Amino acid sequence: MFQMWGDEPPRTARNVLQWYVSRLRGLLGDVLIWTGQGYRLTVAPGEFDVHTFEGLGAAGLRALAAGDWSRACADLMAALGLASGPPYADVPSTPILEAEVTRLNQQRRALLAARLRDDLAAGQCEECLPELTALACDHPFDEEFQYLLVTALYESGRAADALVQCRKMRETFVDELGIEPGVKLRESSTRE
Fold this sequence. Notes:
Number of domains: 3
Strand order of the largest sheet: 1-2
Number of strands: 2
Helix content: 55-70%
Radius of gyration: 22 Å
Distance between the termini: 60 Å
Structural class: mainly alpha
Number of helices: 9
């Protein structure tokens, strides 16, 4: 009940919660069961988009690690297609839900970076520049997106622009965070 009402639930909280559970059981049937310590929603794999998203993402990462670029691209694109908007945007926020939203957003960013690495490895550097430029701008402290943008610029024959991006990114890190960027970004700024 604390997740619904905080530290001060109303007097009728138990009755309201039981009414909600009764309505859910009427809608969902036997998938919502009492366990003795609370209710558990049991679903089969693939019945929630989040399960499909995680399964496709994991398959895409495995394909990427195995060097199967086309399979990786297909799986990663399918996973990212399921995660096109904010997770659980239509559900009232709670601390547990906020943690899950943060986890899913991090996973989405990791899959997006993996898909972009796949695209760059396939030689699609120029095609990735608009997306990477926007991501680097939207996430100025995300070293992976910054590194991928620098790589795409360099591999597209724009070494001077890559160096300018490295310097700009370093200034942002030093001025805003008081730290130097990671080794990968520092090394990318020394390419000839």
